[in-house]
Amino acid sequence: MSLRDKIKTRMDGIQEMMESNVHLENPIKVEEAIAGVSKFWSALSEEDRDYIHGARFAIEEEIEWKV
Q: What pTM was estimated for this model as a whole?
């Protein structure tokens, strides 16, 4: 599996959790998923980095994720 594929798989998992508002019930699970993709920070696209920033903000502020 290529690095890009690993990043995509992990970002898809984070997106699924955020859209299901898992971060409100289990923020640690979402933070762990974010940490798992953040180690590839230099390889992330600008869009992925923005998504992670938004997800972290929603976790910290306990904001419902609306698409």
A: 0.93
Given a contact cutoff of 8 angstroms between Cβ atoms, the answer to whether 45 and 33 are in contact is no
Give the integer Cα–Cα distance in Å for 30 and 67.
Answer: 17
Q: What is the mean pLDDT of residues 42-52?
A: 97
Burial class (CB in 10 A: 0-12, 13-18, 19+), 27: middle
Structural domain contains residue 21: yes
Residue 67 lies in a domain: no
Owner of token pair 């920033």: 53
Spatial neighbors of 43 by CB under 8 A, at least 6 apart, are 3, 4, 7
